[in-house]
Amino acid sequence: MFSRININRFKETFVREEIIFALDMILSVGASIIVLLGVELVFPDLFRSFNLVLTYLLASIVASFSFFFIFKTYKIIIRHLGARDIIPFGMAAALKGVFILVVFIISVGGFYNWLLFVAVLDFLITFFLLIGVRIAMILVYSTINQRRTEEAKRQRVLVYGTSDKSVAVIKRLQTSLHYKIVGFIERSDRHARMLLDQLPVFNFDDDKALSAIVKNNSIDSILFSKDTDAQHESDGLIEFCIKNKVKTLIIPEVDEVSEGQSLLRPRAIKVEDLLGRQEIQISLDEIKHYFHGKIVMVTGAAGSIGSELVRQLATFGVKKLVLFDNAETPMHNLRLELEDKFKGLDFVPVIGDVRQIQRLDYAFRTYKPQVVFHAAAYKHVPLMEENPCEAVLVNVYGSRNVADKCLEYNVERMVMISTDKAVNPTNIMGCTKRLAEIYVQSLGLAIDSGKYHPANGAANPATKFVTTRFGNVLGSNGSVIPRFREQIAKGGPVTVTHKDITRFFMTIPEACRLVMEAATMSTGNQIFVFDMGEPVKIDQLARRMISLAGFTPDVDIKIRYSGLRPGEKLYEEVLANDENTLPSFHNRIRIAKVREYDYQYSQFVVARLENLARQVNIPDMVQLMKEVVPEYHSEKF
Predict the structure, then answer these.
(1) Residue 261 — pLDDT band, cuts 50, 70, 90?
(2) pTM greater than the 0.85 cutoff
(3) Highest mean pLDDT: which of 7-16, 351-360, 500-509, 548-557?
(4) How far apart, in whole angstroms, are the C-alpha atoms of residue 395 and residue 406?
(5) 179 by DSSP, 3-state: which?
(6) Of 586, 577, 454, which Cα lies nearest the Cα of 522?
(7) What's the pLDDT tens digit per position in 336-358?
(8) At what angle do helices 86-108 and 50-71 cross, to 10 degrees?
(9) Do residues 104 and 41 touch, judged by C-beta distance below 8 A?
């Protein structure tokens, strides 16, 4: 490594004026010796006299010393040598040649042609040696400086752990222009003082040991090859790195990598990496087998959940993907992404609204989907508190339209995406999602019990209805993490509604995998609830995000508490426990214990709510919602 210390030592040792002057003397006298040897080879009789040789060399020494001192050639900064700086060297070398010629004339007692030849040859060799060595020194300096600059740009990295994936990272990054892998680091002493892939393994058990490792090896970054390792060290190594301004990096998951990007290009650790849990084991082969060759439709396809469902379905060999959404720009972006990532995928984007029955009918009639994922919904709690009629029309009436079309066109299975806010709702959004659950489940139960009677004497439909509930997903559009990240980028303040507010979180890919697992394994009519793990305190989440961004909370970035918003809970309901759920086929998925409703009654309720919503009769609409969902309690309505 060519460090700043090394380059400075090089300058101090080899570029001092005395050293340069001595070097020029050696070169100049060396040039005269070269002339002597050359002339001796061509004209062996010219320098037979030892006194003449000695006179020549003494003249060379005296002339070199005098003219280098007079023209101050040793003071010219070598690395800044320019065309004008060559003149003093030419003058010094030329006058040296003249001086030697004069000394020769005096010594031999007259002028001879060979004396002029020797003087001119001495001038030429001296001049080119002086300039040539300086050019060589400039090249050496530039090479050292360039390497030092490149080295300074490369982050000195320790890779966490000694797993096969960690070793694979080393092999892929060993030629990187951005990262210099210094070694491995792990908490145990299993590989103490060992080499792995010719790199040392460093061990630590406390912050003192970590500090020594980082300082002694000038470490810039710690790189994690697995998100589970990062989660395990969230309060340990990562906390140390945050406090000591050491960068934390992670290798992205496959589903994060965009077209044309390197799979092993590290990125900074985000708070989402630390909130995740151990990877969920799902029946991937059975899921792929179920969806292979099927026509699948996703409503709300351009949203956070819908678009991730589309990405995962695109890898399952589906026959066709029908993307249904009313958001033009997000749909356009999703289309471009699918065209880039999945060249052979047969998909069709349909701009439409679940409130428009005719447009829904067109999509079902034209493409005849066999499986429908219904992710279209209005989801932002404060906004729906201010616009309750639109929440009813999209979340309740829209869900009814999708479910009815699934029956009409003999869809095999409809999977509705619901929310934890449907449990003991305190806001309009949560209540509308609960009402959508009621309609879809009652419809499925009516079919199973034979109480549903199709119009026009059609055959009894066989559609299976599945509902899935989960909490907040990390990084979804408009959610807390992107909002905090935007506020941090602007320099704060970061706004938290309440110091004690908590939420459950799940990654979008994790949620979508569980949705497909439930959809594949369900026999229909169940409301599946996902295990969301432990709740996260939003205040601590904000502080961790500020720290990961390289700032100090309450110092560099302020945190401001704005108060709970309309319809917002301080604590979300625990979705899955022994009191409110039953076990299912998967230990992370449980079946909600809910009151079952008569289909005729739920059909009447949805129709009445639609009518009241279109009339913007909010009091009567909310009153009916409370009658149907008695656990709904609202401070606003």
Answers:
(1) very low
(2) no
(3) 351-360
(4) 16
(5) strand
(6) 586
(7) 999 999 999 999 999 999 999 99
(8) 150
(9) no
